[in-house]
Amino acid sequence: MQIAPVIAYRNLDPSPAVASIVERRTKKLEALFDRIVGCEVTLEALQKRKVHARILRAHLVLHLPGPDLSVERSVAQGSAQEDLILAVNRAFSAAEKLLKRQKAIMAKLEVKHHAALLHGEITFLEPELGHGWLRADDGREVYFQKDALTGGDWDALSVGTRLRFREMEGEKGAYATGVTPSD
């Protein structure tokens, strides 16, 4: 984690026991998902000070690359200290489930890889029909069309002109896309 966890208390006294639980559970989340940037935990009591039946809320915000993850759990069952620990554990358990789900979604995503930028020169050009052939620097012959020209003027091209392009594989063989004249 790049930023240390921040624990805020509202209408509650700070508790070393709760702080140690937050630290332990934060380390567990970090082991589960190593791209967590930061963590904010807000612990609050919604009513004035009572010993029993207080509503205690644990709000957890995990800062991740992309959208942040926010979880909130409330408990009002027994004593204040027990309810606070229960609320913290429930919030962290819910965050674990959401992180596992997020990790599974991200694992399914495939990164689109672009073809390498190649260089070559025109070996055959049919200006009236709008197509030609070029020889890549590694010796392969690649077909290209006027539509693939992204920079420069089609009428300025001639046999021997140096070009930059990306090679794609089509049904009939290799063809060039993103063709631009080399300077």
Automatic annotation (TrEMBL):
Recorded superkingdom: Bacteria
Organism field: Roseicyclus marinus
Record's protein name: Ribosome-associated translation inhibitor RaiA
SUPFAM superfamilies per record: Nucleic acid-binding proteins, Ribosome binding protein Y (YfiA homologue)
